[in-house]
Amino acid sequence: MTSDIYPSLTRTAGLLLATLLVAAGLAAVAYEALPGWPEIVRMALPTEIALALALAWAVRKSGLGWRRALAWRRIEGRHLLPLGLVVVGSMTVFSELYVVIQKLAPVPEAFEAALRELLEISGPLDAIATLAIAVVVAPALEEALFRGAILQGLARRYGPRSATVWTAVFFALFHLYNPWQVVPTFFLGIVLAWLVLTTRSLFSAVLVHSTFNAASLAVFAADIEAGPRAAEEVPWLVAGIVVLLVAGSLCLLGGMAWIERQTGGGWFRDVTADSEDRDDDDAGSGYPVSSTEVGPSTARR
Question: Number of folded domains in the chain?
């Protein structure tokens, strides 16, 4: 029965709330126990530990093995080029959306200063820690939890479309510590969930998330200051944002359309028909498989 599939929406909310509470407790301990360590280690490492604990709990509760619970499957080589388009498009669109939100509701100087202090790189150790956490550890753990255990469970329980939206909602709320990035994070969550359910591989979302974080760090490290704009420059600024949004959207949608054509839609195909095509390995898990993943006798005609 689908009601027995972990997690439900309520359990997902409870799991993420517990994760945040554990992360807060570990951060308090880290600040006291590691006074000389890089700021990002004392702040972010407790969160990553809490995410790892939540991931282990969710996989255990799912009753499935790690590979099935997380969609732990390699990316097909044919998907790499369209994934590149998705990366470029998503970085362009969501970064510009973030800029628009900041223009409409400016970020307080105190908050921006705190964020810069967190990501301040004052030496080799800081640089290594920041890159390791922001580009490797955080994307891997967040994707494994949100687009792995949570998304896969919600998709089996409620269907791929509802799971995509709800996972994006939870992902955005999990990043509520920065209210200005909630809306872009929600839409990024939609894209990441769609990628995983379409390609049937968690690594597609990890690749996009990791590249996105790396590019964000590069821009942040460049310390680009917009500064005040003369009145005659404003139309050009607005035009530039519009052009980037349009170009980025075309790139993003083009990459997604390309992947959909390659995969046939993955989980977003007729779920009922897909359920009839499950192979023995996935029987009972609610995990639809494509016709290319089953034998000739069971492939859709």
Answer: 1
